Amino acid sequence: MKPFDIPFGPRWQAARLRIAGLRFALAVGLGTVGGAIFFALALPLPWMLGAMTVATGAALAGAPIMVPAQVRNVMIAILGVLLGSQFTIDLFGRIAEWYVGLSGVVLSTALAAGMAYVVFRKLGGYDRVSAYFSSMPGGLSEMMVLGESMGGDGRTISLTHATRILVAVFLIAFYFRLVEGVAPVGLPVPAGESADWIDILALIACALVGYPAAKALKVPAAQLVGPMVLSAALHLSGVVSAQPPGELIAAAQVVLGGAIGARFVGMAFSELRRIMLLAGLVGVMMVLVTAGAAYGLAAVAGQSGPVLFLAFAPGGLAEMSLIALTMGSAAAFVSTHHIARIMLIVIVAPLIFRLAQVRRRSLS
Description:
This protein is mainly alpha-helical and 364 residues long. It has 15 helices and no strands.
């Protein structure tokens, strides 16, 4: 036996899997405890925010938690199936009337990104590439990959986005609870008639087929958008009327919250304090910018200010859509606008950066 066979043999692989399983179990266990505490205290979006809070604290304290990307993507696919079930024929027929809201997405995204870029460059001293890709209000994974490929600091970009999401989700969830009076959600799907086995198989197929199909087509946020589109198609056609069970959605929220917290593993708070403070400041600024745009356009958009606020919010498609589920039919409207925002960021932002690079070289 060669000496290098042992570390990479079956036993080593099995040990790695066991350790990964234990780290994931710890993340889910801590997240469940956090969710249960938030639920008992009647706090907003308890299963996700509670899991996020406890997991983030544990990660910064040194707990080796981990949520595998594959598991997180599966749970996001489940949320996509749920969001697709919110589309109705009546709603689908009114999509053409949403031009004001979609214009507001472009406006609020550009304003928020511009303000964030100035903060990261002037106050934070970020290099130009890291500042640009850190300032985008969405597309965490895509911005980190693109930023790194163009010479930016991937760790700074990732941490900045993770902190922004953390701050934005908390602010927006508590705003809707304390100001708008939106009741906290224990299980985001009301109990209803039990689905038959055909409906269950169809919903599973939406996740299993929609995600890889959207990924193959290089659709942004494929793990959510693909299952959502298939689910919406089946519900609009009347083939399926059921929704994923509330307990499964609550579990998806725990995993999603734990995954956000797990991004901070291995990072000392003292080392990261400056980046987190800057990202927190930017998160607050982005929330204020999007709130101003939403309430300013509410009178001409045909939607209420709170619904537009969720549609423009820089807090993440899955997270904002979960809050929107507490407001009835608003979830489809909100998720559609967030998809537009993500596509705008993922497609347009890199093009603008490359054009700016070409122009800068031509002037130098």
